[in-house]
Amino acid sequence: MTSSPLLNILHRDADLVAIDKPPGLLVHPTGLDAHAGQSALELLRDQLGERLHPLHRLDKGTSGVLLFARTPQAARHWGLAFEAAEVRKRYVALVRGWPQQEGEIDYALARDPELPSAGQPRVQAVTRYRRLACFEWPFSVDGRHPASRYALMEVVPLTGRRHQIRRHFKHIAHPLVGDTTHGKGAHNRAVAHWLGVQRLWLHASAIELPGGLRVEAACGPEWSGPRWAAC
Q1: Last residue of a domain, which of 84, 99, 133?
Q2: pLDDT for 33 beyond 70
Q3: What is the per-residue pLDDT across 118-161, written as a single tens digit (0 to 9) for each?
Q4: Cβ atoms within 10 Å of 26's Cβ, excluding its own
Q5: What CATH number does the domain containing 27 carry?
Q6: pLDDT averaged over the chain?
Q7: How many domains does the chain fold into?
Q8: Residues 108, 170 share a domain
Q9: Under a CB-based contact definition with an 8 Å cutoff, are residues 153 and 191 in contact?
């Protein structure tokens, strides 16, 4: 019998525990992905030997800081802070093309990204971004260009809609690399071959709670190396 892998715990106190979620791991069990195996909730519950309450979601493909409450009282308290948009989150993303140096995407989104947008009510969604680095990699995805351009972005969602970052960057024509739903398959395949890693290139790098608690998770080793030389 093989033991389950231990999750990397970034912070633990009487109310909260934060982990560095690896890509490819669900936050909690869901019937939408019946073949996913164990979830972060199950693994951490077994690792700590206690009941836990997820405070927010990360997509299965997204890595980085993930918070759980350790008591029902903490879950209610911090859940309200998330609902009131009092929790600040930062992400790092790799996108196609070279967006502006910085900007804000203020674009209302359909409430449920799993359903067709037509006919759905739209909810306010705002995302700020800052470009950290530009890359021009020596392979062609579009026959008109001998090389392909990508950018590393710092992203701060000011609202918490499902798939907000992924949908917003698709809206401005700079989709996230590795996004099989909102991205471009040819770019996903080309970058996976170039970097030797197939994943959604989105990482939750930091969460800051009201009161000053800040939890950070460094990007994994796949985010660095000689092929990441900036322009």
Answers
A1: 84
A2: no
A3: 888 899 999 999 999 999 999 999 889 999 999 999 999 999 99
A4: 20
A5: 3.30.2350.10
A6: 94
A7: 2
A8: yes
A9: no
Residues 94 and 171 in one domain: yes
pLDDT in tens, 55-89: 999 999 999 999 999 999 999 999 999 999 999 99
- Name the token pair of 146: 């001998």
Contact (Cβ atoms closer than 8 angstroms) between residue 78 and residue 43: no
> Can you give the C-alpha Rg of the chain in angstroms?
18
Q: Is 112 a catalytic residue?
A: no
Residue among 13, 20, 46, 59 flagged as catalytic: 59
CB-CB contact of 50 with 70 (8 Å): yes
Whole-prediction pTM: 0.94
Domain that includes residue 146, residue range? 88-225+227-231
Q: Give the model's pLDDT for residue 196.
A: 97
Rounded mean pLDDT, 209-222: 97
| Alpha helices for the chain (secondary structure H) | 40-48, 72-83, 164-171, 185-195
Q: 102 — phi, psi (to 5°)?
A: -155, 160
The one-character DSSP state at 227 is G
- Nearest CA to 61 among 202, 224, 206? 202
Handedness of CA 160, 90, 55, 86 (dihedral sign): negative
The answer to whether 14 and 70 are in contact (CB under 8 A) is yes
